[in-house]
What we know:
Helices cover 0% and strands 53% of the residues. It has strands spanning 4-10, 19-27, 35-45, 48-58, 72-73, 76-77, 79-80, 86-90. It starts with a strand and ends with a strand.
Amino acid sequence: MAIAVSLAVSPSTPTSGGTVTATYTVTGNVQDAGTPVTVNGTVTVGGVDYPVSGEFTLPGKQAQPVTYEVPTCPSLTFKATSQPNVFTAVVP
């Protein structure tokens, strides 16, 4: 899955003294399912070869770490919130 990012700002028409919230969203940053593989071998008993195999799944690529930059906008100073992807600013 492709990674997609967006930044939503609300409300769209804030009032003076109101708060604007900027929220980042990241989709598609998930761990891959992994790759099934087969391991083959041979056991020899009394001169007779017995081929054997086993299967397992190699782990997929882990989700990548995500960090969020403080948004910028003329006349506003955004500050971090308790959620790492959400920032707020007071409208002058």
